[in-house]
Design a protein that fits this description.
single chain, 369 residues, alpha+beta, 11 helices
Length: 369
């Protein structure tokens, strides 16, 4: 797809200026950029520059996402808080709400903040890492537009609903498990469409109860119009444990709605009964556990490192080179890309130039020009 590597300082400054050009205050724009590019640093290209224009800028332009974030604390106790994001920037809402949970944990041992009326907050792993960096165990999840079917169902009833956990270690990277409770996510199907890759077997179910195969663009249209849905971890039916993914997806759906009286399911579709675009009103939750309130950050990091190394040092399956633990591959991607830059595909290159020309940011020249 003609990927070109762009230096980090160039893409960081451009994305920040573009966000500012769309009305986001500078400090908030820096947060949005940091979350967005963290995905590319970890090799999660479905949530990085690939989504810069269509998920964030286009939604601001459509009026369904507010560039200026009204972060309202609706209720607060020593260890908890409820936040209304008023459809502002999800990354800003997520960053501030998560930091509230961390601050509460640092003082009282545990902190939990729940959010309603938010927008897409980027990769969930960003927030788990934010907690780990401050010596906390971090747990977060978010609901999303309905595109995943329950076990034995074919309707998209809930989102890809990541359940993400970060645990500090003494390694060069913390243990961060960040994945959807579906086999794949909408962003990955969008990415497959851009790079002309077919959908993978077993990841999408049609109205007939059978897997959808072939062109990713067509599969994406089917998901959008309700004639297909993503499958939960474990796949179609119960044979390979699809009910487990379904159950964990529902945990995230519930925690993203019940404590803050948030929207859920079909109400997160992003359209009204007439098909007009409306805000998504997403819900998130953030839990922080301070390790210093237990046996201390140093002990926690060393013990966690000991455990994950014992797993990595176990017997490797024939034909395989090594065993990985969560966040290890992402760390290796960063080591490769930190001097090389962020890879940008041809479709995203065109979007970047379109945004640059629209905003008159003529000072920016990119390697593919």
């Amino acid at each position: 797809m003609g990927r070109v590597f762009v230096p980090w300082d160039l893409i960081t400054n451009f994305v920040t200026d573009a966000f500012v050009g769309y009305g986001i205050p500078e400090e908030d724009a820096k947060i949005c950029t940091d979350v967005l590019l963290e995905a590319d640093k970890r090799g999660i290209e479905s949530h990085g520059c690939n989504r810069f224009k269509p998920i964030y800028l286009d939604r601001i332009k459509a009026g369904i996402q507010q560039p200026v974030t009204n972060f309202e604390v609706v209720k607060e106790t020593e260890c908890t808080a409820i936040v209304d994001g008023h459809d502002g920037m999800g990354q800003v809402i997520g960053y501030k709400a998560n930091q509230m949970a961390i601050d509460k944990a640092k003082k009282y041992g545990l902190g939990m903040v729940v959010v309603r009326n938010s927008c897409h907050y980027g990769i969930a792993g960003y927030y788990a890492s934010q907690a780990c960096d401050q010596g906390c165990i971090g747990i977060t999840g978010t609901n999303a537009r309905p595109s995943v079917a329950p076990t034995f169902g074919v309707d998209g009833m809930f989102g890809t609903n990541p359940l993400t956990i970060g645990i500090p270690t003494d390694e060069d990277f913390d243990f961060v498990i960040d994945c959807a409770t579906s086999i794949t996510q909408n962003g990955k199907i969008e990415y497959y469409e851009r790079i002309k890759e077919d959908v993978h077997p077993g990841t999408i179910i049609g109205r007939d109860g059978k897997e959808v195969l072939g062109d990713a663009g067509e599969a994406l249209k089917m998901i959008r119009n309700g004639t297909a849905a993503l499958t939960t971890l474990g796949g179609i039916g119960e044979a390979l444990g699809g009910y487990k993914g379904y159950g964990y997806a529902m945990v995230v759906e519930l925690l993203s709605a019940i404590l803050q009286d948030g929207n859920y399911g079909k109400a997160l579709n992003g359209k009204d009964e007439n098909g007009n675009l409306v805000p998504y009103h997403l819900g998130h939750f953030f839990i922080a556990i301070d390790t210093d309130h237990f046996l201390g950050e140093k002990f926690t990091r060393e013990k966690a490192g000991e455990i994950i190394r014992s797993v990595r040092n176990s017997t490797v399956a024939p034909g395989e080179e090594r065993i990985y633990t969560a966040n290890e591959k992402e760390h290796e991607v960063w080591l490769y890309r930190k001097d090389k830059g962020v890879p940008v595909t041809e479709p995203v290159q065109k979007e970047i130039l379109q945004v640059r020309d629209e905003l008159g940011l003529t000072q920016y020249k990119f390697p593919w020009e």
